[in-house]
Amino acid sequence: MRGSRSKALHDRALVNCQYSMATFSTGERKRRPHGDRKSSEMTLHLKQTFEAAILTQLYPRSQIDIYVQILQADGGNYCACVNAATLAVIDAGIPMQDYVCASSAGFVEDTALADLNYVEEAAGGPQVALALLPKSDQIALLEMNARLHEDHLECVLDAATAACRAVHAVLDQVVRDHVREVATLLGE
């Protein structure tokens, strides 16, 4: 995609994402760390999520590349990628509408759980991945992998939303601390 003028957009930036997993990131070895169906799906989800948050109209005829590689898959891979990419985009100085905070949630044994680990994901219950713009309460991405009764949907979404807000508080504090540290080093 890099260097292709035919894909350049005259009115906004093109967001290019690539998701891959290291071959050693899980117990089972993968021959192709990217290019498989799962990686292509995650790449598309990342692209859609960040196109909703980045102010692309400020950079016409430009391309913003986001490359993410999972080194250890412990569950919540998409959510960890979104949170890490959000910090990277902020650090790069690319303006966004808001932080993009992501969390997974699931329904295990009549209980809504947030931020699922690998064991909870492998249990096979319904799972939701939520990417949220917390200040405006806009949903950048919502994905559900299995059927869930509508009586339980609200509590699972509430758990994911609460986890996204908690992630937002942590990310905001980290960014503010980093800005303070850089300002101190520059003597401002």
Distance between the termini: 40 Å
Strand order of the largest sheet: 4-3-5-6
Count of helical segments? 4
Rough outline? globular
The low-confidence parts are none
Properties at a glance:
188 residues; alpha+beta; Ribosomal Protein S5, domain 2; 4-stranded antiparallel sheet; two-stranded parallel ribbon; 39% helix; globular
Give a description of the structure:
This protein has one domain: 2-Layer Sandwich (Ribosomal Protein S5, domain 2). It contains 4 helices and 6 strands, in the order βαβαββαββα. The strands form 2 sheets. A 4-stranded antiparallel β-sheet has the order 4-3-5-6, sandwiched between helices. It has a two-stranded parallel sheet with strand order 1-2. Strand 5 and strand 6 form a beta hairpin. The longest helix is centred in the last third of the chain and has 37 residues.
